[in-house]
Amino acid sequence: MEIVYVNVDSANLYREANYxxxxxxxxxxxxxxxxxxxxxxxxxxxxxxxxxxxxxxxxICKHDMPIETMKTVTKNHxxxxxxxxxxxxxxxxxxxxxxxPLEQIKNDMVKTFLPDGKExxxxxxxxxxxxxxxxxxxxxxxxxxxxxxYFWGGKSAKGLDCSGYVQLLHKLVxxxxxxxxxxxxxxxxxxxxxxxxxxxxDLLFFAEEGNRITHVAVKLSDxxxxxxRGMVRINSLIPGGKDFDKxxxxxxxxxxxxxxxx
Length: 262
Known about the structure:
By secondary structure, this protein is mainly β. The chain has four helices and 22 strands. The chain has helices at 134-144, 162-172, 181-187, 246-251, and strands at residues 2-6, 10-14, 23-28, 32-38, 42-46, 52-56, 60-61, 70-72, 77-81, 90-95, 99-101, 104-106, 109-113, 119-123, 155-156, 159-160, 189-192, 203-206, 215-219, 224-229, 231-236, 252-257. The protein is globular. The model has no long low-confidence stretch (mean pLDDT 96).
């Protein structure tokens, strides 16, 4: 078993070792992977969040040099430039939730490097720290993704599924959670079985097929949720409210949270 790193903005994690296979999740730039098996075009890997799947060999590489300081990208979309100038050649895109190495700061640019050894520069405001209350920060961040299209297996600002969206928001406030909605339901702390209870930033879970959890949303206000369903959108839980969706109440299971104050 060897360690490899994601060398692109985001790479699909396939169920089988071919591009026609179902996409179960994604991995992002500099994400550390344990390679379990290598074939000609794909590698079977174990991801940091526990997921396993096949990723293209063209999108990962080994990196043996020590890394001292990593910082999380907090801007939805950012670019790594060849020089400390936003008019220079773009050498990589980078999405929110990725963590990249820091080397030096020059004006408003930060020098970094990629798993393949290439060096580049990213705008310093792409790495703005998110400080303060996790609940208010999570809500602030959640709205940044409004309108991002739904993409099964997606966990970047180019496309998100419901649990990938929830996982990304928690990662941006410093909380690591598992990938799928049934896993998140299992791990989170129960708040209530009333959809109108709880605090902003709590999670609402839904079962569209019997008792199996199939969907998750973030509590945005006393009566609204924000979630990835078709796209990242806001829905009301109150009949007559703006964008009320009765099916959400029909399928609701529980309010849970990862934001319990210590």
